[in-house]
């Protein structure tokens, strides 16, 4: 499947090839797409496996599909019209989980809507902002996101995230860790000892193996699945509309970083599939699609969307650049999002199963940040920027009482990990003198 005929994004392989290829794109991103909604729902105090959590999972699938179609089919200037798969972004999890825990989902989702509008507006001049986000800055932000989320993964693997769960006797039990480690071992085994579709689906297969073991150990409750409907209408503003300036600023800052990431994915897709650079129109269209998908998702209870880098790898691996293949993947996600039974099955997944999966996922996010930083020469200036930015970003998040007397908006930003790291990295990179050539 490396025929150069398919280096044109407007060419479609025969359906017997296109449908399996579209499914492969879905399998590669499915677990990563629904995980942020599960984490934010837990932070908001929603019952694990309850109808509200199921609804958020549905919205993650539905609007990943819709945003993907925006990206591949396009509407006017919206959409790169490249084979870019959209999904719920991990970049926003830290900020949104904190906002949801302290202010509620209404504030978090309102911030997503406004952040999406700002993200959309970035499409008009994104190419002029790229100089603010060299690999040093973007790598630091991505690394911070991964490191910030790793403790959440460990808590899930041990059997809890909320205080009452971590205080239970079963927290950290051998049963919980045996399930989590099964997920990790199977996922890594499939990823590195198989090829093609199986390898791309390593995390999903690992989750299925852990799910089976958890079921055998009596950890799975199928009652919510039996009670879930086959079809349900979606609701606009399910938690209302509640504005908070700190939450909006925090989400907007992450949106800018997400936009830069999408620029990178659009460029990588064009390079991997067609051996060329992405055009300005494709980069702007990709950013518009990101923002529009995020804003509309927020209206209905979905979290922010972004391009998924792992799917860029599939384009490079198969050599098939067809955007219509990824459109098929988007349609599959839309169908999944409209069926609550599917969301209920995902929501029935015990925390240790999810924990095993996200240990790998969040670790990979951190590793991706290190990979981006590797593009920078490790001079004394570079190392100081990394050291100070990480110390502020992660330090204030770990010790939030250190800034307890700051006003609410500023405190929210200061303890979000991502925002202070990004602002410190950008500021130091602009202020500190460049190394002599």
Task: Quickly describe the structure.
InterPro entries: NCS2, UacT-like, Xan_ur_permease. The protein is mostly helical.
Keywords for this entry:
1% strand; mainly alpha; two-stranded antiparallel ribbon; 437 residues
Please provide a written account of the structure.
The longest helix is centred in the middle third of the chain and has 30 residues, at 245-274. The protein is globular. 68% of the residues lie in helices and 1% in strands. With 437 residues, it is an all-alpha fold. The chain has helices at 15-43, 51-72, 93-103, 105-122, 135-158, 163-166, 174-193, 196-200, 202-216, 223-227, 245-274, 280-299, 309-318, 323-337, 340-347, 351-373, 380-398, 408-414, 418-431, and strands at 86-88, 305-307. Helix 1 crosses helix 9 (202-216). The chain has one domain (4-431).
Estimate the strand proportion. Answer: under 5%
- Contiguous uncertain segments of 5+ residues: none
End-to-end C-alpha gap: 45 Å
Radius of gyration in whole Å, from Cα?
21 Å
Q: Write the H/E string, N to C.
A: HHEHHHHHHHHHHEHHHHHHH
Look at the structure and give the mean pLDDT: 83
Helix content: 55-70%
- Described by its quaternary structure, the protein is single chain
The overall number of domains is: 1
């Amino acid at each position: 499947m490396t025929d150069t005929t398919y280096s044109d994004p407007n060419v479609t392989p025969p359906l017997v090839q296109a449908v399996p290829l579209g499914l492969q794109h879905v399998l590669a991103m499915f677990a990563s797409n629904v995980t942020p909604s599960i984490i934010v729902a837990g932070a908001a105090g929603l019952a694990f496996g309850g109808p509200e959590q199921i609804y958020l999972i549905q919205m993650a699938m539905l609007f990943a599909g819709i945003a993907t179609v925006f990206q591949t089919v396009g509407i006017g200037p919206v959409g790169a019209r490249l084979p870019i798969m959209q999904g719920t972004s991990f970049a926003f999890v830290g900020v949104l989980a904190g906002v949801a825990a302290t202010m509620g989902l209404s504030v978090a989702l309102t911030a997503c809507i406004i952040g999406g509008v700002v993200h959309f507006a970035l499409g008009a001049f994104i190419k002029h902002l790229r100089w603010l986000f060299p690999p040093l800055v973007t790598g630091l932000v991505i690394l911070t996101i991964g490191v910030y989320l790793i403790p959440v993964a460990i808590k899930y693997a041990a059997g809890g995230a909320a205080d009452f769960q971590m205080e239970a006797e079963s927290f950290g039990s051998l049963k919980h860790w045996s399930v989590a480690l099964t997920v990790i071992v199977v996922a890594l085994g499939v990823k590195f000892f198989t090829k093609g579709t199986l390898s791309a689906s390593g995390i999903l297969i690992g989750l299925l193996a852990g799910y089976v073991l958890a079921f055998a150990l009596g950890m799975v409750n199928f009652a919510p699945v039996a009670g879930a409907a086959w079809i349900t209408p979606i609701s606009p503003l399910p938690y209302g509309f509640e504005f908070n300036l700190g939450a909006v600023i925090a989400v907007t800052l992450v949106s800018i970083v997400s936009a830069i990431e999408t620029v990178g994915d659009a460029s990588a897709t064009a390079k991997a599939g067609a051996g060329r650079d992405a055009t300005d129109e494709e980069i702007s269209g990709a950013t518009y699609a990101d923002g529009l998908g995020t804003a509309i998702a927020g209206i209905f209870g979905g979290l922010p969307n972004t391009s998924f880098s792992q799917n860029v790898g599939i384009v490079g691996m198969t050599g098939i650049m067809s955007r219509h293949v990824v459109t098929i993947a988007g349609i599959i996600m839309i169908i999944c999002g409209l069926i609550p039974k599917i969301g209920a099955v995902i929501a029935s997944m015990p925390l240790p199963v999810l924990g095993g999966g996200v240990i790998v996922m969040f670790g990979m996010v951190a590793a991706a940040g290190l990979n981006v930083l590797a593009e920078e020469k490790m001079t004394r200036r570079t190392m100081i920027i990394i050291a100070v930015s990480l110390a502020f970003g992660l330090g204030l998040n770990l010790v939030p009482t250190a800034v307890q007397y700051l006003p609410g908006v500023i405190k929210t930003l200061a303890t979000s990990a991502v925002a202070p790291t990004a602002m410190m990295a950008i500021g130091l990179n602009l202020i500190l003198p460049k190394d002599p050539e």
